[in-house]
Write a structure and sequence with these properties.
binds BIS(adenosine)-5'-pentaphosphate, binds magnesium ion
């Protein structure tokens, strides 16, 4: 079983690339953001608990996303591998994921980080806001908070995975196809 992780700030292109890669390599794409948005549209208890945090661009509780990941992994025992998008986002989540995979005899293979600067984050999200109607794309204060949350809570994972020799970076300022080819060469 292979476990890959796509890493990067909001709007880096994680979701765009994950869909293409999942198709090419027959991996199960797991986006915690997409799973949470599904819970919100189903008006589930979990969705209700997550909605205000997501709409403001804050992280949802570690325990909620960890449980969702465990359900996804255990619910798909026959796939050749998983591609995580937007998870883990805190050191605590990364530790929980390591423990979860270890229990199942696995480990993260590679973390692929898509590097884009904050200015391009705004440009990409402004473009998407016109197409999708995500609440957390709808104003610049929320986007600013998502970027700040990324730098504070998620960027420490770079060192976490570098220390394990699993961290790879690619430049995210290019066409979708260019970036796809760069990531493919790492998989
Ligand atoms: P999540 O849904 O994960 O959002 P995000 O990390 O902010 O990332 P995005 O989905 O905004 O960007 P992306 O990198 O997928 O870019 P995309 O491919 O769409 O999380 C949302 C919220 O859920 C969080 O704020 C938090 O509240 C909660 N949450 C989720 N996971 C959690 C966790 N683990 N723990 C706690 N809370 C969690 O691309 C963006 C746009 O750019 C698109 O329009 C796309 O078409 C375009 N584009 C992509 N690539 C290119 C390119 N190369 N050139 C030009 N345009 C491009
Ligand atoms: Mg996404």
């Amino acid at each position: 079983m292979k476990y890959y992780l796509l890493f990067g700030p909001p709007g880096a292109g994680k979701g765009t690339q994950a869909k293409l890669l999942a198709d090419k390599y027959n991996l199960r794409h797991i986006s915690t953001g997409d799973l949470l948005r599904r819970e919100i549209s189903n008006k589930s208890e979990l969705g209700l608990a997550a909605k205000a945090l997501m709409d403001a661009g804050n992280l949802v509780d570690d325990s909620i996303v960890e449980k969702m990941i465990e359900n996804e992994i255990d619910g798909n025992p026959t796939v050749p591998g998983f591609l995580f998008d937007g998870f883990p986002r805190t050191v605590a989540q990364a530790e929980a994921l390591d423990a979860l995979l270890e229990k199942r005899g696995g480990a993260i293979d590679k973390v692929i980080s898509i590097i884009i600067d904050d200015a391009l984050v705004y440009e990409r999200i402004a473009h998407r806001a016109a197409v999708e109607k995500r609440k957390d794309d709808s104003n610049s204060d929320i986007i600013k908070n998502r970027i700040k949350t990324y730098h504070q809570m998620t960027e420490p994972l770079v060192d976490y995975y570098k220390d394990k020799g699993k961290y790879f970076e690619i430049e995210g300022d290019g066409t979708i196809e260019e970036i796809f080819n760069k990531i493919s060469s790492l998989i």
